[in-house]
Specification:
By secondary structure, the protein is α/β, with parallel strands linked by helices. It has a single domain, classed as Vaccinia Virus protein VP39 (Rossmann fold), CATH 3.40.50. It contains four helices and four strands, in the order αβαβααββ. A four-stranded mixed β-sheet has the order 1-2-3-4. Helix 1 packs parallel to helix 2.
């Protein structure tokens, strides 16, 4: 980032914006993301027992597909409401969800998504 942009302020702006749009984002992009999930997971050779980090996972569409292939998946997103969407928050979901910023060079402060 440029020196005139406060990275913490920018991340907070992004978190707030994605929280605000979480439901409509999932409603629109889940089906779009689903089309890319299979080729992506195939290219990455995702399979049973593989550990997968779904970074910036949003509502977890790719992570859920990876879990169905037998992978052990952790989805990480900056916006708590994105994680709360059905694809990742289902009680039956095999995907662990964490709310965190993954771009910071500082040590991550992770917390389980509610």
């Amino acid at each position: 980032m440029s020196d005139d942009i406060d990275p913490d302020a920018f991340r907070e702006f992004e978190r707030i914006a994605h929280d605000r749009l979480a439901e409509s984002y999932h409603a629109f992009f889940a089906s779009v993301t689903a089309h890319a999930a299979e080729p992506l997971l195939t290219a990455a050779s995702v399979g049973p027992g593989m550990t997968v980090l779904d970074a910036a996972c949003g509502s977890g569409v790719v992570g859920m597909r990876a879990a169905r292939l037998g992978a052990v998946v952790t989805g990480v997103d900056l916006a708590p409401r994105m994680l709360a969407q059905r694809a990742i928050s289902s009680a039956a979901s095999p995907v662990s969800a964490l709310c965190a910023c993954i771009v910071s060079p500082r040590v991550l402060r992770l917390r389980r998504a509610e």
